[in-house]
Amino acid sequence: MRKAIAEYVELVGLKDGQRKDYLQLDGSRPPALTQNEIAKELGISTTTLKELLKLERNLIPELKEALDKGFISKTAALGICRVSWL
C-alpha cells in the first residue's frame, strides 16, 4: 500500500510543488492536489497518508523490505523514522 500511495502522490503531485511535469491529453498540466484531497480520493485519513509517505521517504531499503514482509510493524517503522537523526 505504501508504494502504491507514494507512486500515486508522485503522479498527481502535491500543492507544495512536489510534482513531475505530467501533461493531460490536451497538453495542459493537471492541478496538484492537497494531502487532504489525495487522502479523500484514496479513502484513507490524512494522518495515514502522511505516515505512509514518511515511511516511503525516510526508511532505508532494508527497513522497507522488513516492513513489507511483516518483520516490523508500521508503528515500529515510524518510531525508527522519528529517531533516525540520532
SSE map:
Elements: H1 2-12, H2 35-42, H3 46-58, H4 61-68, H5 74-83
Helix pairs in contact: 1-3, 2-3, 3-5
Description:
The chain is an all-alpha fold and 86 residues long. Helix content is 58%, strand content 0%. The protein contains five helices and no strands. It has helices spanning 2-12, 35-42, 46-58, 61-68, 74-83. The chain is elongated.
Judging from the principal axes of the Cα atoms, what is the shape? Answer: elongated
Strand count, sense and barrel status of the largest sheet are: none
Distance N to C terminus: 28 Å
What Rg, in angstroms, do the CA atoms define?
15 Å
Q: What is the oligomeric state here?
A: single chain
Helix content: 55-70%
Order of helices and strands: HHHHH
Helix and strand composition category: mainly alpha
Our estimate of the beta-strand percent is under 5%
Unreliable spans: none
For the secondary structure, the number of strands is: 0
- Number of DSSP helical runs: 5
Kindly report the average pLDDT value.
Answer: 81
